[in-house]
Amino acid sequence: MKDLHFILLLLRKEFLLEFRTRSAISGIFLYVISTLFVVYETFVKIQPNVWNTLFWIILLFVAVNAMVKSFVQEKGNRVLYYYSLLNPSHVLIAKIVYNTLLLLVLSLLIWGLFIFFGDNPVKDMGLFLLILFLGSFGFSVTFTFLASLVAASNQSSTLLAVLSFPLIIPIILMLVKISAHALRLIQDTAVSGDLAILVAIDLLLCGVALLLFPFIWRD
Amino acid sequence: MSRFILIVFMSFISIFSASAANADFMRSIGKIYVVVGVMLLLFLGITLYLILIDRRLTKFENQIKSDE
Amino acid sequence: MIEKGKIWKFSGVILIVYVIIAGLLIPLKSGIESVEPSYGNAGETLKIQVTGYNTHFKEAGNSLRAWLKWDNGKAIAASEMVALDERRMNLTFSIPNNLPEDTEVQAVTLLIDSETDGTSVLPSAIFLTQTEKVLATEEVPWVKPEDFSNNGQITFPFRNILGETIRNTYFHVPLWFGMMFLFLFAVIHSIKYLRKGDAESDLKAEAYTQTGIFYGLLGLITGALWAKNTWGAYWSWDIKQNMTVVALLIYAAYFILRASFEDPEKRARVCAAYGIFAFSTLIPLIYVIPRLTDSLHPGSGGNPAFGSQDLDNTMRMVFYPAVIGFTLFGFWLSSLQFRYLRLQKLREDLD
Question: What is the ipTM of this complex?
Answer without folding.
Answer: 0.87
